[in-house]
Fold:
Amino acid sequence: MNVWCKTLTLIIAALLVAPAALAGAPVPDPSGPKLYHWVGADGKDHYGDVLPPEALTQARQEISKNSGMTIKQVDRTLTPEELAAAQAKADADAKAAEVIEKAKQDDQVLMASYPTEADLKRAYDERLASLTETLKATRIGLESQQQGMSSQLVAASNLELSNKPVGAKLESSIKSTHALLVEQQASAMQQEAQVAKLLQESATTMEHYRSLQAAAAERNATPATTPPTPTPPKG
Structure:
């Protein structure tokens, strides 16, 4: 028999023996008899065929009596407080993940909606101009109401100085003008707050936009290649 035949015979023999060897290896049988192993309250290892009630909530191993191998690992049962804490942490983690994902989506919308910084600035300038015009109109109306109120108060004062009664019509007009004046003052304050908020939002968004642009430019940048040093001619 030549060397090739001997080698082929050995390979075939190995292939025939391997399944038999694997078949003879011990395999844990989860349906067979079990032995439980746990650590008791005394800190010592305990073994038994049956778990006592006090061990039902403890971490344990289930061991096959046939093979002596561990067939199952059971973790300790969590207390209600631990379960509540774990659920709270899971909820907080999920909420944080939602916030991060929402921020990523907002960044994508921001970059897609405004290709350049000038586009973003123009959008904020338009919003600011609209709010400013509304505030201007409110202030003009407020000034007009203040003048009307002053005229009505002067008229009422002149009547009283002349020992004449202030008529019900003038009293009603003064009350309604005062109510309108208070309403317009509150509206002007609210609009002023909106303008201030928009200015702050514009500055913050512009700064964030620039950081996103810088990050995008860094990702898209290609590393500069150093040109080879020319070899001086010989001789």
Summary: The longest strand covers residues 34-39. The two ends are 68 Å apart (CA to CA). The helical segments are 3-24, 80-113, 117-161, 168-220.
